[in-house]
Amino acid sequence: MNTRLPTYFVSHGGGPWPFMKEQYGDTYAVLEASLVDIRRQIGNVKPAAVLVISGHWEEQELMLSSSAQPPMIYDYGGFPAHTYQVKYPAPGSPQLAQRAADLLATAGHEVSLDGQRGFDHGTFSMLYPVYPEADVPVVQLSLKHGFDPLTHVKIGRALAPLRDEGVLIIGSGLSYHNLRQFGPEGRLASHQFDDWLQMVLKLPPSERTTALLHWGQAPYARNAHPREEHLMPLMVALGAAEGENAACVYHEDEFFGHLAVSSFRFGEPVAA
Fold first, then answer.
1. Which CDD domains match (predicted)?
2. 65 pairs with which residues across the strands?
3. CA-to-CA distance for 33 and 26, rounded, in angstroms?
4. What confidence tens digit (pLDDT) does each residue in 79-132 have?
5. Which site among 97, 108, 216, 217 is 20 to 30 Å from 91 CA-CA?
6. What CA–CA distances, in Å, run from 162 to 80, 98, 259?
7. Tens digit of pLDDT for each residue in 51-72?
8. What distance in Å separates the CA atoms of residue 101 and residue 117, rounded to the nearest whole number?
9. Could you tell me where the beta strands, DSSP code E, fall in the chain?
């Protein structure tokens, strides 16, 4: 039986959406179902921990959350009052934070531990459907300022051994992230860029990496990602499973009525 966990890049949705069913109705139903399905894909085996690379945390050098009980970060505005009181009380894992730091340092990356960092919505909103009981330890890894694609692929390469240690690696961002064009004006860019992603991820691994490193040459790339912080988690998830197959595990053509959005898995699902 395959025990190596796959890695994921997930489009995490907007703000605290799992806690706004009354307001959103079934807007996020397809995304939610895809996140719930991650449990099935890894064989319904609870991982030792989850390492999340969030598009909502960037630092000059890499940082890992190392608190045993991370607090909450309500990094959004204009939502109902109750969304600033939600809790996702998953424990942290100082041990995983140190293990990941050691792997990154050995690979030549500057990295530090942050004992105060909490869960931002790129982590808790995405994980709530996957593990609603918040009973799996979670560590967050920052992005590195500058968003160099190769650097983030190398970060993933360094973290790859964690997959054999029961750690589920998830890059949490959005395949389309232009908040100024999140309606009908974003239809063309989101669909063109998503079509490119789908095509590239079917390429042989070496060609796939090369294409993604030059993502800025894709159709409507800068319309889809004026600032690429929500795309860089994809590079880490790719790097951690670089030679393995990719699969689209979530896709909508009319998200919020107009947008194409997707999530991807790298590596094979674990046999149940």
1. 45_DOPA_Dioxygenase (cd07363)
2. 114
3. 11
4. 999 999 999 999 999 999 999 999 999 999 999 999 999 999 999 999 999 999
5. 108
6. 38, 12, 34
7. 999 999 999 999 999 999 999 9
8. 15
9. 7-11, 49-59, 62-65, 111-114, 138-144, 167-173, 246-255, 259-266
